[in-house]
Design brief:
Blueprint lengths: L11 H32 L6 H22 L8 H15 L5 E6 L6 H22 L7 E8 L3 E8 L14 H9 L3 E6 L3 E8 L23 H4 L1
Parallel strand pairs: 1-2
Antiparallel strand pairs: 2-3, 3-5, 4-5
Helix pairs in contact: 1-2, 1-5, 2-3, 3-4, 4-5
Length: 230
């Protein structure tokens, strides 16, 4: 996990550095997977399994390509659930796994400038689940929920490997903490019958649509009185 020392507030330059670190961090994960598979192909070269390993390399590389494309793509809030599911599914594929994904997504609205960072938060939390919590499990389940209250949106990611916190309160991922803070939220690790990562964001009201157009005043037509008619 990338370690970043955070200050209490983010200056614009500091946040730009954080985003760059996140990009490098994700590219690093991608290249690690490619390198490991390439090493395996090289070590076992000439065997009948080489074709299968190369096929797995292609599939996982394609999945990583899709993840990066999704993270860079703008989306409408009505598409949020599908967007999150696709990111999580492709991340699972990139790890060569077949974990199930369960979504519980409420309807809510966030401004466009926050959606990109919310996608990064989801990707980082799912990646950490696959790298650490489910690493020793042949197959598991990843739960992603986004519950809306009158004032907040609560994003939670947990998995079927319910590790107890044993009374400890571990710190959240520095990347997730920084991204959450940049859009006015907080990140924490909570005990929900086991380890769960949670991000609480302020909920914005969707602005009323602006109707654009032109109008002109309709001239008032004078009616003729009975005296005029005579």
């Amino acid at each position: 996990m990338t370690q970043i020392h955070l200050t209490e507030t983010f200056a614009p330059d500091a946040f730009a550095d954080l985003i760059l670190r996140e990009q490098l961090h994700r590219f690093s994960n991608s290249f690690q997977i490619i390198a490991a598979l390439a090493r395996q192909c090289n070590r076992d070269g000439g065997t009948l399994d080489t074709a299968l390993m190369l096929e797995a390399l292609e599939e996982r590389t394609r999945a990583l390509t899709t993840v990066h494309r999704l993270l860079a793509t703008s989306f409408e809030m009505c598409e949020f659930a599908g967007h999150v599911h696709e990111i999580a599914r492709e991340l699972v594929r990139s790890f060569g796994r077949s974990d199930a994904i369960v979504l519980q997504i409420d309807h809510f609205w966030l401004p466009q400038k926050h959606r990109f960072r919310l996608g990064l938060i989801v990707a980082e939390l799912v990646t950490n689940t696959l790298k650490h919590s489910l690493r020793g499990c042949a197959e598991g389940l990843i739960e992603i929920s986004a519950r809306a209250t009158s004032r907040t949106v609560i994003l939670t990611v947990c998995d079927s490997n319910r590790k107890s916190l044993n009374g400890k309160r571990p710190l959240p991922s520095p990347i997730v903490a920084g991204l959450a803070e940049s859009i006015g939220g907080i990140a924490e690790v909570v005990d929900q019958n086991g380890y769960a990562a949670r991000v609480i964001l302020p909920r914005d009201e969707q602005p009323a649509p602006v109707i654009e157009g032109t109008w002109s005043r309709v001239p008032v037509r004078r009616t003729m009185s009975a005296r005029v008619l005579h």
